[in-house]
Specification:
This protein is of the alpha+beta class. It folds into 2 domains: about 5-125 and about 285-310, Diaminopimelate Epimerase, Chain A, domain 1 (Roll), CATH 3.10.310; about 125-280, Diaminopimelate Epimerase, Chain A, domain 1. About 20% of the residues lie in helices and about 35% in strands. The radius of gyration is 19 Å and the shape is globular. The relative contact order is 0.19. Keywords: Isomerase.
Length: about 300
């Protein structure tokens, strides 16, 4: 009987059970799309990533939330590349190309000054679209008030590979009060009803960081909150240069996850080449544990909750 190993790595932290958990599946021979979705549904991390062969890059990654497939996921990419390098599958390389549904993206692998493995991921060029919905309803869905939203900055949909709604917040203390009603999101986000909501502010817990955020999932994804986001941090950095402080280049450190007890940090670098913005995110990861499941368990839905019980 076919065995599938699912690894648990935490991205954007070197401390286990902090940062953002990702399911990592490296042996995917003969796994169907339905089986991948079933595994992600039962694992119930925000994303589970699957390593696949590619004809146009070094390898391909597919990403599944418990509810559906997504084009790109930053934290699961960082976790996958960290896992492949640690397992000596790509440890002979310092740069790789990955194929995703958001395109072919370059990845760099290096160690920082204290020896930690760091993965740098290029993202798609940033895109922004205006939010035309009700700000009052948006605030209510987060259990905050209109006055908590910073009206001096625009609320926009943004993407560097995955769309989210960027909501500027005035003060850090507001984040502790947020209690999202995720099922309301599709009715408020009528232009893009399946996207997440990403409130952020310029006040931070750490003096070493530039921005703080939380990330509330679309109800279609099957999760409620993402502890530390990669693609949303990337587009948040692009937002900073577009709407807050235009510069030719900027390095930002984004903090997230404190309200969930999952603190992690994402380094975002934005620079212009030939008048085009290049966005990268950098982070580390850490191995936590693994579990093996049988093919029959996948097909019959018997694996629900096993990963959580191992944690």
């Amino acid at each position: 009987m076919k065995k599938i190993t699912i690894y648990h790595y935490d991205a954007f932290s070197h401390i286990p059970n902090r940062g953002n958990p990702a399911g990592i599946v490296i042996t995917t021979a003969n796994l169907s799309e339905t089986e991948m979705q079933n595994i992600a549904t039962y694992v119930r991390y925000n994303e589970t990533a699957f390593f696949l062969p590619s004809k146009v890059a070094d390898f391909k990654i597919r990403y599944f939330t418990p509810g559906h497939e997504v084009d790109l996921c930053g934290h699961a990419t960082i976790a996958m590349v960290y896992a492949l390098y640690s397992k000596k599958i790509i440890d002979h390389k310092k740069e790789v190309l990955i194929e995703t549904k958001a395109g072919v993206l370059p990845i760099k692998i290096q160690r920082n000054r204290i020896g930690q493995l760091q993965v740098t991921m290029h993202q798609r060029p940033p895109e922004f679209k205006p939010f035309r919905g009700s700000i009052k309803s948006l605030a209510r869905s987060l259990d905050i008030t209109n006055d908590d939203i910073d009206s001096s900055l625009p609320i926009v949909y943004g993407s560097t590979g995955t769309w989210t709604l960027l909501v500027p917040i005035k003060r850090l203390e507001v984040f502790k009060r947020m209690n999202p009603k995720n099922t309301h999101f599709p009715f408020i986000l009528q232009d893009m009803p399946k996207v997440s909501i990403h409130p952020f502010c310029l006040e931070t817990y750490s003096h070493d960081c530039n921005m703080h955020a939380r990330h509330f999932s679309s109800p279609y994804s099957g999760t409620k909150e993402d502890p530390v986001t990669g693609t949303a941090s990337g587009v948040m950095g692009a937002y900073y240069l577009t709407y807050i402080h235009p510069e030719k280049s900027k390095k930002l450190v984004i903090e997230q996850g404190q309200e969930m007890g999952k603190r992690g940090e994402v380094v975002v670098q934005i620079q212009y080449e030939d008048e085009k913005p290049i966005v990268t995110i950098t982070g580390t990861a850490v191995y936590v544990n693994k579990v093996e499941i049988d093919q029959e368990e996948i097909d019959q839905g018997l694996i629900q909750g096993k990963i959580q019980k191992q944690n």
